[in-house]
Hints:
Blueprint: H1 16-22, H2 25-28, H3 32-48, H4 54-72, H5 85-97, H6 110-146, E1 151-156, E2 159-165, H7 166-191, E3 193-194, H8 210-216, E4 221-222, H9 226-231, H10 234-261, E5 268-269, H11 288-311, H12 326-346, E6 351-352, H13 354-361, H14 368-377, H15 382-398, H16 408-412, H17 422-425, H18 428-433, H19 443-462
Parallel strand pairs: 3-4
Antiparallel strand pairs: 1-2, 5-6
Helix pairs in contact: 3-4, 3-6, 3-8, 4-5, 6-7, 6-12, 6-19, 7-10, 7-19, 10-11, 10-12, 11-12, 14-15
Amino acid sequence: MSEKAWGGRFSEKTAQSVELFTSSIAFDKRLYAYDIMGSIAHCRMLAKVGIITRREADAIVNGLEKIRQDIDEGRFEYSHRLEDIHMHIEDRLTRDIGDVARKLHTARSRNDQIALDVRLYLRDHVRRIIAGMGDLRKAVVYVAEKHLNVILPGYTHMQRAQPVLLAHHFMAYYEMFTRDTGRFADSLRRINVMPLGSAALAGTTFPIDRAYTAEILEFPEVSRNSMDSVSDRDFVLEFLSAASIAMVHFSRLSEELILWSGREFGFVELPDAFTTGSSIMPQKKNPDVCELVRGKTGRVFGSLTALLTLMKSLPMTYNRDMQEDKEPLFDAVDTLSACIDIYAEMIPRIAVNKEAMFAAAMKGYLNATDLADYLAARGVPFRTAHHIAGAAVAFALEGRRELDELSLSELKGFSPVIEQDIFDALTPGRMIDRRISYGGTATENVKKAIEQAARELANEETH
């Protein structure tokens, strides 16, 4: 006869190899606090509707609190024989308080229990991630404000294109991380749904009060379909999708910091505390943190792919395949959280080489568009102006000069509308400050963007 809690219909013990193969306690034990929280709420509800007595409920709750304390303090023993965190807690509770513990599982199943645990876990960690993203965005705004007047080349196709403010460049990442924050916040709406009381898949015959359980656990909504409740992992997929997009942004920033910190660019120097050396080359200063963040992006992508693959062909409702959802989820949460924390710490300490940035912005014909704009503003059709500016660049290339190094007479040879004021128009500072369109890199625009970001962050902290 099986000794399992579910073993009534089995005539022999579970093979030890099967116990090891099916055990999830090695990773789902991190859900213990959420499992106990859900069990206490369920117990209180059972007492409220009269399924168990108040005295029984008090005994169960006190027992669960003692177990939580023992796990917190490292005095709890785990065994593959008990499969998962639910059975560990139930077994220990039964040994501690006797048969009254067996009443706790009335009107629920491990199917809706684990759905609840994962939602509680993810709700908690998404809130922490949102808070961490706030710290990261503050760090980005700090760097932008500190380096408001620093000019560097903006790039398209990894070729120098037009000069921009470094602050504008960093504020682009503020926008990315703000969208990420919005996605995580929006995902909370679908995470924050209470599934307990759906039982195995069909609901229960007991007169439970699911709304009361939801109230205890601070869920604003109760799941509406018992079959969907136990089989839904959309909220995990949605989180992993948002996490993957966030890691795309981390990876892009990492790539730029890696390039910018190399001697070929020399735009920034990463702090010594966030870099490493070489075991053989004494001169090396390697951007290992940035490289690891870039590499860890693949881990989070892998978690999303694993969950999509896991769920894509599962019939209704719960299937044991879904045990495999937790390790990718836990790993993605840990990975993303670590990347947020270390970048929030590192970014304010990056040293900016404004001279190298400005020197790069002065080379490579970054003012060619401004020459075309100058002509167009004086009545030359833009396509014609574009052609004229291109011809001027070709002429300057032959002489290995920049456009602003040509003489006025040479420039007038391309168009008679060009006057002395062209040289002012072709300086990086003027090129930047004339880009006044909303969202452009003009200094006043960027100042307003930084101020708006500061207000947004302050408002988020308040709420």
